[in-house]
Amino acid sequence: KVLKDTTLFFSRSTPNLVTIIPVMDLIDQQMMMYSCDMKILPSICSAIGLAKKTLDRYYQLMDRPEVYKIAMVLHPHHKLSYFKSAGWEDEWIKTAEDLVHDELECAY
Questions:
Q1: Long-range interactions of 89-96: CB distance < 8 A, separation 24+
Q2: For residue 63, what is the enclosing H or E element?
Q3: Predicted model pTM
């Protein structure tokens, strides 16, 4: 259901950086929950596990371009609070904050 809802959500409008990350986090949480659910057939759990590995690979690609983190920090609704509520480690949050400061220093 979460994948269908995500597809419909992004089909209605043009996704931007600030909407992609929270949606990926939601999908990741749902996959973790379903992969541990004993009521689901083992074959489905395996498929969910493979899908989660693919999602993790895309998530790792977001670490490369700093623009994702900068977009989240500078967004008026999210700022650093998004990373805290998403359960990011303090070190990762500090890295995102430092990245924005460094970019501002370099650009201005």
A1: 95/69, 96/69, 96/70, 96/72
A2: none
A3: 0.59
- On whether the CB atoms of residues 62 and 34 are closer than 8 A, the answer is no
- DSSP letter for 64, please: S
Q: Structure tokens of 41?
A: 């057939």
- Of residues 68, 81, 76, the one with CA closest to residue 21: 68
The residue written with tokens 């004993």 in the block is 38
8 contact partners, CB below 8 Å, separation of at least 6: none
Neighbouring residues of 65: CB distance < 8 A, sequence distance ≥ 6: none
Q: What is the full per-residue pLDDT of the chain (108 aa) written as tens digits?
A: 778 887 887 787 777 777 777 888 888 888 888 887 888 888 888 888 899 898 888 877 776 667 777 888 888 788 888 888 888 899 988 988 998 889 888 877
Distances (CA, A) of 68 to 15, 45, 62, 64, 93: 13, 30, 7, 9, 13
